[in-house]
Predict the structure.
Amino acid sequence: MTASSPASRWRRIARVFATPAAGTMFCFGFGCGLPFFLVGTTLSIWLRDSDWKLGPIGLVSYLSFFYVLKFLWAPLLDARRLPLLGRLGRRRGWLFAAQLLVAIGLAAMALTGPGVPVPLFLGLVGLTAFAGATQDTMVDAYRIEIAPIEAQGALAATYTLGYRIGLQLVGGALVLYLAQAFDWRTGYLVMAGFALLPALVTLLVREPAASARIEAEAQPGLLVAFIKPFSEFFRRHGIVLALVLLAFVGLYKLPDQMLGIAGAFYLDAGFTKADIATVSKLYGVWMGIGGAFLGGAAVALLGVRVNLLIAAIAVAGSNLLFILMALNPGELWSFVLTISGDNLAQGFAGTVLTAFLASLADRHYTATQYALLSSLANLPGKLIGGFSGFLVEDWGWGYAGFFTFSALSIVPTLALLAWLWRRIGAPPAREA
């Protein structure tokens, strides 16, 4: 049996899942997933429940742009240790500080609420999003630096398991149950407590072995730190291929990321907060986890290239299920079917895209290059998502028209993938 056979790949992946790194990535994934809905979809439900209109709710989603713009401060995270906490290491110091700031931000949001002067509350939302984006950047760098490329698919699946639990079961379902039973303040205070758990893990794990070596090789000067990661990416791939890769990554998640009013849509479709928590979060998380592990298996057996095509079509197609839900308001079966397809496709696509982006990042500039790529994967959708409420409510598109548009937005991505097909790697057997 050859080293590149499917059976040998499965054995290597099984060994990765048995390592402490897999457990670490599960915990870190939980921490990264927890705040994302709390400053996004769950927050939109809170605002709608507080009688905000769809237009302003869509604009508030722009505060999550910190997740899109994290590449702007990632060079600093690559080049410098954090003062005072630097003794934890270049990666762990920044990570621990970001995790503490997430917990503080969520607690402050809970204690103020959207009823206070709006700028204060939105400032706290932005602070929490900034801390969450910084946490994401450090975890991505940590994951890439602790394992070789062939292990990244398995670690991405483990990370996704924790991420989905934090994102949907806790930051999605549990907080909605708490809001229903008590109030939003109680829900967000409990979330702040959960945000401290991954910070404790950061204190227990080790700094990646490669981090100190890479830090020693880094050239001095902040100007170099900000320029070198980007120039290296273009030098390694060439200007034309690099630009096409960036455009492809930027458009890949467009159908998913532009759904900035999904939480408000669930309420408008006639479902209660408890319904949303049970179906969209509690049930949906397992569909997302299943999709993530399916994506990890598919990458191991077929490679990244084919699965990029499968995932892109699946995500776009899942958006059409929202039309079925819009045409059948209050019908639980349509809600379950929509959430099943949407989360399965998102979980599959997330693992595939994570493995693809890890293969593009140079380990000397892990935080910056991966942050750039993952930020671009969210930027176009976030830009359009901010206006999604106006498209539905004020411009006369309606929910059905908007979801049709979101599904068709995958067409440019497929065109770029066709051009890249022979340039981004072959199936596993030929790669070996």
Summary: The radius of gyration is 21 Å.
